[in-house]
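User: Please run a holo structure prediction.
Assistant: Happy to. Please share the sequence and the ligand.
User: Here you go; the ligand is cytidine-5'-diphosphate.
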Amino acid sequence: MDKPKAERTLVLLKPDAVQRGLMGEIITRFEKAGMKIVGMKLRWVDSERAGRHYGEDIIKRRGEKVRELLIKFITSGPVLAIVVEGVDAIENVRMMCGTTEPKSAPPGTIRGDYSHISYRYADLAGKAVENIIHASSSPEDAEKEIYLWFNEDEIFDYHTVYEIHTF
Ligand code: CDP
Ligand code: MG
């Protein structure tokens, strides 16, 4: 039988989360869920790097205009990049984020608890949907995105106290 293996995912706390002072609260949610932070850095990226994160896939799914607004948003201030590790971390973290549109994201999710804006509002305002957080959506994306934001030596293998102590 296969042995259980931790999975890693990339989380970005977008400029709205950083500017609103929500970093600590959101990190706490992952820690409380028992997941492990194995990499973390605050970065203010330019549109070239932002465009590598939101590339062809976003054009195909959401269109060129959304990509343009999204790049403008994600480069408008610092972003906190986090590598989160845990059991089925990709799926678990996505679930904790809630749906893309904060208005439809259920209470209890990060987008549902910390935002409430709608697609309609964003359209009328001529802005991207400012929804606090990005999380990788598949193992392929996670692998690609983690190494877009982190070097190998910026991601750490360590044991939590629960892993170290056997009482
Ligand atoms: O982030 P998520 O995976 O939930 O959604 P996505 O389809 O990968 O879109 C990436 C990001 O684009 C979203 O998180 C929104 O910030 C933004 N977006 C937008 O501004 N307008 C849309 N109509 C759709 C997405
Ligand atoms: Mg996505």
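The domain at 7-159 is CATH 3.30.70.141 (Alpha-Beta Plaits).
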